[in-house]
Every structure is written in C-alpha cells, then in structure tokens.
Amino acid sequence: MPDTIFGKIIRGEIPCHKVYEDDRVLAFLDVFPLSPGHTLVIPKEAVATLDQLSDESAAAVGRVLPRICRAVMKATGTTAYNLLQNNGSSAHQAVFHVHFHIIPKADESHGLGIIWKAGKLDPSQGANLAQRIASAL
Fold first, then answer.
1. Active site amino acids
2. Does the reported pTM lie above 0.85?
C-alpha cells in the first residue's frame, strides 16, 4: 500500500490535533472540517479499505468509536452527527487508509449534506442476493 498522509501523521512526521490514541487507533481533528469538531478516527494498520482491515484493528476501532462520538458531541454541544466511512475512489474515498469521519451536525449550514436516491428492493432478487452474501461469509 502506498504511504498516505495518515501514515505520516501516525509516525509523527506531520502534526495533528490529537484527541485520542492507543496502540491500534488514532483520532484527530480534520484540517478541512465540514463542521467544528469534525474528527477522523483511523486504525494504525495501513490498509486502504475496511474489508482489508484485520479483525483486531476493526475491534479496536469499534471499541473506541462510540466513546469518541460521545466526546465530540459533548465538546461541541451537538446532539446529532454523521459517521461516514468511504471505501474506494468511486465511493468518494480520497485518502487510501481506512478512516471514519465523525461529523457533528449543529444546523443545516454545517456538517454533512446527503442526497439519498433510494430504489426499491425486489423481494425475489433480495432473497437471492441475501443468500449469496450469507454464503460468502
């Protein structure tokens, strides 16, 4: 995997506004925030997408992510937030190191805006697809 800005932050080559760190996870403020308190949570394991992440690193992120969300809400005074995680360039991933965005939503002018173009699941296609996904597990 190519080195990323997050690898440089983990190694201390680039400074960050750190909010949390342990042996597997680092969390810091986004330097291009969508709202005040926009925080990035990253595993120290250098993989591009979530499906490549080890069970150990995934568990470490999952263990601290709710705690960091609570801290962001408390510090910003917000009660709503988006948790965003993109995988691959066509899914809008810009830094190819797994990362989660905690984006506080104080009002409509700050935070993440979403256009959700929902379709409708055909029951027979849904049953077939669910079976194929379950079999892949």
1. 99
2. yes
